[in-house]
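Open question from group meeting: does this chain pack into something compact, or does most of it stay loose? Before anyone orders reagents, we agreed to write out a predicted structure and look at it together. Recording both the input and the output here so the notebook holds the full record.
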Amino acid sequence: MQHRTALAIFKDSLVGLLHAAVFLPVLHFGFQLNRVSGIRELVTFFLLTQILAVIFHKGWTYFVGQSLFTLSFLWYLFRDHSESLWPTGWLRDSAALFRDQWNLLIAAELSETPQFLLITLFFVLISLLTYLSVHKHLAFPSFLSAFIYLLLVHTFSANTILPEMIRLIGFGFIFISVMHMTTRTTTFQFVRNVSMTALITFALTTLSTWGIERGRPTQEWVEGQTQSYQRNLDEQGFFDWINNYTSGIGYRRTGMGFDDAELGGPLRQDYTRLFRAHTSNPHYWKVLHRTEYNGLGWVSDEEDEDTQIISTPYNIAYDYTMTTEDLSLLRTSEDLSTIQIDWLDDLGYIAYPYGWYDLNSESESAYTIERHEDSALYAMELEEGELLEYSVSYDRSFPSRFDEDLLREDDGWRDFYNDVYEETMQDMDDVQDDDVSGVDIWFDEELQLPESLPDRVSQLAYDLTDGLTSEYEMVRAIEQYLKEDGGYRYSLLEVESTPDGGDYVDHFLFESRIGYCNNFSSAMTILLREVGIPARWTKGFTPGSQYTDEDGETFFEISNANAHSWVEVFFPSYGWIPFEPSPSFANPLTNPEPVATVVGETYSFVDDDFIDMQAEDAEQGADDVDSETLEEGESHPNDELLSESDGQYYGNGESSGGRSLFFNLSMVAVIFLSIILAIFRWRIAIRFSKLALEKNLLTLHAACFLILRLFNFKLKRQTGQTIDSYLYQWKPFITDNSDESRTINRFVSLADEAFYGPQTEKQKPTAEQTAILLNSLDLLENLPDLKKNPRTPHPLSGKIQEKL
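C-alpha cells returned:
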C-alpha cells in the first residue's frame, strides 16, 4: 500500500485552497449578479468538500463520504420538504421532488424557482470538480468553467467582469502551476517554487488592476462592438428560446411586476399583448405608485396596506358605489369621456388614465376589486369565469396637456403651506419643531429619503436648482438634466445591478450613467425630494400602438413592452402630475411640446440600443406612416419600437431582483461538458486518433508523434530519452514474445523510420503501417498509468537495461 508523504498532503491541501480561490469568487459574483440567496451555505459546502477531498484520498472513499455529506447538507437545508421523520421517508420525498422539478424544467412548465433541483445540481458539480482538482490534479474543468461563465455574463448582460476576470486568471495561474509541481523534492524547494509563483502572479495582477482605468476606452470600444451581436441573437429568437426553458425561474423580461424592492440589471422585451383601449387620444395608463425608497428600489408592501373592497359602478371622484341609473345620469350630466378596455390577457389589476372619474364593468363573471389606499393599486381577483372588459370615464375638463402657464399657477405653494401650518400651530399653542415645516408634515411619505443616501446626490440636486425659486422651474431643471443635459445613456441591456453596499440612484447618477425608465424615474424622484418637492415613483404603461379597426374606430394596443415608470409631482391646483425624465419618451400631459401622435418614436425606444440625441433629431419624421390606414391585427413598421418596464420576474422563488438563470444554466452546461471531457478525455483522444488513421488523414510522421503524445499521458518522456528506452518501461507488464511485445517493437521501428528515415514528413502510412499504428493504440489503452502508480525500479534495473 502506497502512503502519501507530508508534502503530498500539503500539496493537496494547497490545491483545495486554490480551487476555492478560483471558483468561489465567480460563484459569489454569479449569485450577487442574479440576487440569489444561499451563498453562505454554498461557500460552507464548497470549503468542507475541499477538506473531505484531502482527507479521503482514495476515489471510492471520497465519493462515499461526499455522498453522505451532500445528503446531510441537503437535509439540513430542505428538511421541511418532507413530513416524514425518518431518513428513508425524506429520501423518498426528495427524490420525487427532484424528479418532478426536473420534468417541469424540461417541459418548460415551471411556475416557481426549483430551489431543490438547482442546489442539488450545484452540490453534485462542486463534488465532481473537487474530485478532478484534488484527486486527479486537473485544473482545466474548474478554471475553464469559471472563465467561460464570465464571458457569457459579459456577452449577454454587458456587466463589468474585468476585475473578476483578472482575479480568476491570477489565482488560476497559481492553481495550474501548483498542479504541475512535483512533490519528489524537498519541502523548502516546493515552498520556494510556490512562493515565487505567487509573488510573480501578485505583481502581474496588481499591474493589471492598476491598468483597468487606463484601458477603459478600449474596453468600452469592445463592449460597443458586441451590441450588434446581441441584437442579432435577439432578432433570431435566441433569447426567446432561452425564455421558453427558463419561464418561472427568474429570467428578467419587461412587464408589470409588483416586487420593486430591488431594481436594476438588464432586461429583455416581452411583446405579450395585454389590453386594448378604445380611444382616439393617447394616455399614460397608471397602475400604482410607490413612496418609500430603500436604497435599492421601492418598498412593495401591498399585503400590509390598508385596503377597501369596492364594487362597480364605482365613482372615483366621490369614493362610492353607484347604481346603474346613477352612472347613466352622471355620464350624461357631466362632461365625461368613456374608454372601453378589452383584456387580451388575464390581468390582476386595473390600468386607468389620468383624470379618470368612474369605473364600471358589465361582465357577468364574479370578481372582486380591492383598492390599496397607499399605492392606488386596484387589484382585481376573479372568482369564476373571466373578465373580458371594463370601462373608465375621465373628465374632459381635466387638461389634456399642462402647459407652462397652468403649472406656474402654483409657484410658491410650499411657502403658503408652511405659513398656514405655522399659523395653525400658533393658534393651537403647540410647541413647534423649527426643523419641521408644514410640507414635511403633510407630505411625510412623499419626501422620505433613506439615511444611507450618499451626500453627493443631495449636492447634485442643489446644484441643479441653484438660483431657482419656482417649483415648476426646479422640476423642469431636474427633468431636463436627466433627459438630455446630463449625458446619461438609455439602454435595456447594459444596465448594471447595484453593487453590495451601494445605492441604486447614486450608482446610476455617478457610476454607471446607463439605465432605463426605472433608473431615470427613481433618480428624478429622489432629486426632487432632496430640494423639498413632494414626488412619488409611479408605474403603469405608455399609450401603446395606435390602430384603426374595420369600422374606422381608433384604438391603442398595449403590451408588456409598454410597461413603464415615471414621476408624479404634486401641484395643489391639479394634484399629482406626471413628468417624464426618460430620454425619448413623451408624456402627453406634461411634454414641453404638444404630442400629436404615438406613431414612431414619440412614446417608444429601440429596446436594445442607446439614444443618440443628434441622430434622433435628424431622423425625426423619417418614418412618418399614416396609422389610420392600418387594419386591426396589422403590424406597424414601428411597432417594435416600444417602451420598457421595470422588469417582471416569472416566478415566486426565494431569489429576488435581477436574477438570470440563463447564466447559471449556461455555467452548469459548461461544467458538465468540462467534466465529461476531463473524465473521458483518454477515450475521446484514442477514438479520434483511430478515426483519423482509418480515414488516412495523418502523415506517418504526425501519426507516430501523436501516439507518443498519447503515451505521454501515462508516463512523461524525459528529454533526450530514446523511443526504445521510453517504451521499455512498460515491458515488465507485457509477456515476452507475445503480440503486445511484438507491437511495441514494431512501433519503435516504425517511429525510428518516420523520424530518422529518408522519407518526407508528408508521406502517408501504408496499409501495413496503419495496422501497426492502430494496434499500438489498442495496446496503449490496456497499459497501466505509470504517472499515477509509478513502478519502483529494481536496484539492478539500470545495469540490466544497459546490458540490453
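Observations to bring back to the group:
The two ends are 31 Å apart (CA to CA).
Residues 118 and 664 are 9 Å apart (CA to CA).
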